[in-house]
Sequence to fold (560 residues):
Amino acid sequence: MPSATVNNHRPSELLSRLASAEPEVKVRALREVKNQIIGNRTKKLSFLNIGAAPAVADILANSFDDVIANNCNNNNINNILIQSAAVLGSFACGFDAGVQAVLDAGAFPNLLRLLANSNEKVVDAGARALKMIYQSKLAPKYDFLQQKNMEFLISLLNSENENVSGLGASIITHSCETSLEQKALFDAGILRKLNSFLEGGSLSQRDASLESLASILKNNSEVILKFSGPEIGRPLSSVIDLAKNRYPRTRLLACMCLIVIRNTSPHFLQDVGIKTKLIRILLELLDDPGQVGDEAPFAFSSLIAQKEDLQKLALEANAIDKLHHHLQKGSLHPRRYEGILLALADMCSKLESCRSKFISLQVLNLVTDALTDDNADVRTAACICLKSVTRSIKNLSAGYFMNEIIVIPLVQLFLDPSTSVQVAALAAISNIVVDFTTFKSIFVQCGGMKQLVQLAKSIESAVRSNALWALKNFVFLADNRLKEGVFSELTASLLSSLICDPEPSVQEQALALVRNLVDGCINSIEFVFAEDGLILGAIGRQLQSASKAEIGIQVWIQGK
Fold:
């Protein structure tokens, strides 16, 4: 039996076929473009680079013109509309460059027009394409305070087509940002409609509703109070039930919605059983091999961040062991890798018992490896994790961190091309250089101190501020010889200019550095009189014009 032949034309050939006057040829070409680019970023770029997005957008627009000119809606035109929408949606799916190309080609208004078509398949194709666009932050936003936009949204949510109603929920998730919009959506009865999807909608409708609910409830205790009451059918119990759903994505989204409620209105969900259940569900979702597993550690972090009671419950649920286990697997997706490191950072942010567990499991070695990862977000997360762990005076005193294995890669990150990585590395080293042992010379020998001085001159205020913070901690309780070494690199001229820096955060840290330099033996006071009292003069000027209380306090401390 002969094997079936598979058309796989080159992008340039297909682009010429898209221009064909024959509807059948055009449809086949559109279908082949769609099949080639689905899930393939390389192919998407190949087609985008030769102008495929504008070409398909023009086909969509011209097909509308044909419908109007000929006052008809035949199968050929419908097929072209469906396949054009499918191609545009495929370009946009999970690919911001594709979304931007589709928007730049002017396709968005015509995709919206598809929703009013009399053919259900055309409507569905348009809704699917628009949902792909609304997965991206680049999608257009709707102002729900405008009546026409609210009416449009309600029409979407009332549609019997689940992709259209799902699109409505996606638009809410993407566009709802202010408390006024949240209240307007509640007053318009949107939450009641979303609750109906939670109770009787399809899987996609439930998931889309959970996401949009989180956007409407976030940081709005007034709407949460109404949401939790009997006015719209007590949907909170529906969300709690969905956290136990058999579908991993539904469980994750339900947990995220509950976390939004808990973080905004702590008096809700106080039951220890619910809190423990949330922790266990999110830790279980780490095992999911796909996107759910990638996002689960971020949800876990948002649940426990700055909350000692939840961090303690998470420790009892063996959270650090499980996060460590996933790190040991290696070859993690960058998003998951970053999330796990940030989850560990939050776990170790407050409780000494968590930090002790972290050290005993030797998680530190894996976090140190992440400092040299290719992904900037992973490197940043590793630094943030180190910053949390090094808050422990006990572990600093034990000398766990002031060693070449940790210090050298951190110092190398001072010159990272990413400012976020630089700032995170400086924040981590700020804790480490407080080290109460006698090993501060390691930091000097690897060039760390000189690089901090250079970074104090950075054009980025966050880098200047954090570099000064690290220098301030480095000279804390240090002997005079080390202080003299720092001061000779820094110079009175530079330090006085930093005291008068345009940014208050830099001024504050510069003054704090001076405080630590002069603290100690009587000879230390000589630093402020160097170069004809430049530093003392700068402090005097700040005392007269301090713009922040923190700066005034630092200046006052110098004179005590």
Notes: The CA atoms of residues 476 and 516 lie 6 Å apart.
